[in-house]
């Protein structure tokens, strides 16, 4: 990965120290058993506490203390929200990061229930990959460690929670090419099903499991030599393996499965009907203005157009814009409702 440059790093460090001095370095967790007045039901029709595990697609601000200094903070068109935050609001909750990074490139617990961290795989340690290491270091927890951290802090899950699990895209991206990559992808999907089983056995009664999106249709996929064919193939392999593993673990019917692969594919095919003017062929965050060309460090100052967060589908070459996140959140909410929970 490209470095963010000495100038940007210096600016980030200077602003961050000032912010930490002014705020005491703290931050509320923003997580209750449900927000708002008990007399007024949230749009979802039921109050639920949201717990989230996964990667950058669900990260609500693990790296915000550093990225926020340049207007970033989440892997989208900042300051927009990601889907997990939208879903939390729908059920009357507020989701904040379980851990955040400091200038020392170390994670510290914040008390939030948003455990998803950008760069995370299902179970592979962070130091085996080079992901924005000059910005965040090698500190992101894989999902199995995220769940273990939750259990260590909270003991168990409960029926008043909605647990969101979305992981595997990084495993697909880093696996290489088929057929050599197949075993790696299958193992990750099988492991994810085992992690979901652990969550259910730990007391969770409302668990949403999202499969891997069609990574081959991302701008990164389109730009690859084969136009994304291998990434699409591996995404499908992950999903079929995950589905089979959930079934063999007796979890189908106990979890709410969300097919993001089909949803993303259809959303791109019908992008104009979904309110976009640019599909998967370009990104909202200007590569020449956005440090490291990553949506983590994207802000309105680096948009290609003032309303790019609404008119483009992708923030950078992999991550959804604010608008696409919002549409996906609505889809998830609808699927949850069809399962019999809330509206």
List the helices and strands and how they pair.
Layout: H1 6-23, E1 49-54, H2 64-67, H3 83-90, E2 99-101, E3 107-109, H4 133-136, H5 143-154, E4 161-166, H6 169-174, H7 182-201, E5 207-210, H8 219-223, H9 229-248, E6 256-258, H10 260-269, E7 278-283, H11 308-311, E8 312-314, H12 322-338
Parallel strand pairs: 1-4, 4-5, 5-6, 7-8
Antiparallel strand pairs: 2-3
Helix pairs in contact: 3-12, 7-9
What does this structure look like?
The chain is an alpha/beta fold and 343 residues long. The protein has one domain (6-338): SGNH hydrolase (Rossmann fold), CATH 3.40.50. Helix content is 37%, strand content 10%. The protein is built from twelve helices and eight strands. The chain has a four-stranded parallel sheet with strand order 1-4-5-6, sandwiched between helices. The chain has a two-stranded antiparallel sheet with strand order 2-3. α7 runs parallel beside α9 (229-248). The longest helix has 20 residues, at 182-201. The radius of gyration is 19 Å and the shape is globular. The termini are far apart.
* Total E-strand runs: 8
Return the structural class: alpha/beta
Kindly report the name of the CATH homologous superfamily: SGNH hydrolase
Radius of gyration (CA) equals 19 Å
Give the termini distance in whole angstroms: 44 Å
Q: How many separate domains?
A: 1
- The largest beta-sheet arranges its strands as 1-4-5-6
User: pLDDT average, as an integer?
Assistant: 88
Largest sheet: 4 strands, parallel
State the CATH architecture.
3-Layer(aba) Sandwich
In what range is the share of β-strand residues?
5-15%
Instruction: Name the helix and strand elements from N-terminus to C-terminus, one letter apiece.
Output: HEHHEEHHEHHEHHEHEHEH
Task: State the CATH topology.
Answer: Rossmann fold
For this structure, what is the CATH class? Alpha Beta
